């Protein structure tokens, strides 16, 4: 039985992290059309149906406006589902309200913040394509100025 990750990688090379494949997959996802975002809101149980419809449209509009201020662009028609059981901020069921969900597909218009994860060399599959130097990493645009 291996006692450390280094011992494990010597016996099971398939468990090594293939950073080339991961980076290729992430590059494809950059061109992905959008992401689903869900917002919720609660309305009183005794609200008339006409007012529920008007408030639902207003809440959906507010949700979309907040997302657009954060750099997301709406990619399709929003969907409002409900009523569902409403919950308060502590997770308890609220018997006096009903909850509605606004679901929208958005695409981010600004570049998202890059995340850097440092891996020990023993975890990374060593391929001929791994020829990045420290100078290349420090000089790249995603790490400049940090």
CATH topology of the largest domain: Alpha-Beta Plaits
Text of the CATH class of the largest domain: Alpha Beta
Strand content: 25-35%
The CATH architecture designation of the largest domain is: 2-Layer Sandwich
Distance between the termini: 42 Å
Could you give the count of β-strands?
4
Uncertain runs: 141-146
Q: What is the 3D form? A: elongated
The level of helicity is 25-40%
Overall mean pLDDT stands at: 76
Radius of gyration: 24 Å
Number of helix segments?
4
Order of helices and strands: HHEHEEEH
- The biggest beta sheet, please? 4 strands, antiparallel
Domain count, please report it: 2
Structural class: alpha+beta
Description:
This protein has 146 residues and is α+β, with helices and mostly antiparallel strands. It folds into 2 domains: 5-31 and 114-139, no CATH class; 35-108, Alpha-Beta Plaits (2-Layer Sandwich), CATH 3.30.70. The protein contains 4 helices and 4 strands. Strand 3 and strand 4 (93-108) form a beta hairpin. Strands 1, 2, 3 and 4 form a 4-stranded antiparallel sheet that branches. It is 32% helix and 26% strand.
Chain-wise SSE layout:
Layout: H1 5-11, H2 19-30, E1 35-44, H3 49-69, E2 72-74, E3 79-87, E4 93-108, H4 134-139
Antiparallel strand pairs: 1-4, 2-4, 3-4
Brief summary:
With 146 residues, this protein is an alpha+beta fold. The protein has helices at 5-11, 19-30, 49-69, 134-139, and strands at 35-44, 72-74, 79-87, 93-108. Strand 3 and strand 4 (93-108) form a beta hairpin.
Looking at this protein, list some descriptive labels.
146 residues; alpha+beta; Alpha-Beta Plaits; 2 domains; 4 helices; 4 strands
């Amino acid at each position: 039985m291996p006692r450390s990750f280094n011992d494990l990688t010597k016996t099971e090379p398939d468990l090594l992290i293939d950073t080339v494949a991961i980076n290729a997959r992430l590059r494809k996802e950059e061109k992905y059309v959008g992401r689903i975002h869900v917002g919720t809101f609660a309305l009183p149980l005794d609200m008339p149906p006409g007012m529920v419809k008007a408030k639902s449209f207003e809440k959906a509009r507010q949700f979309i406006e907040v997302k657009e201020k954060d750099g997301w662009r709406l990619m399709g028609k929003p969907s409002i589902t409900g009523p569902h059981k409403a919950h308060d901020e502590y997770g308890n069921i609220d018997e006096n309200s009903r909850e509605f969900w606004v679901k929208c597909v958005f695409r981010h218009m600004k570049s998202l913040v890059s995340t850097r994860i440092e891996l020990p060399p023993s975890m990374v599959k060593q391929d001929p394509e791994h020829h990045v130097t420290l100078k290349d990493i420090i000089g790249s645009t995603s790490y400049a100025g940090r």
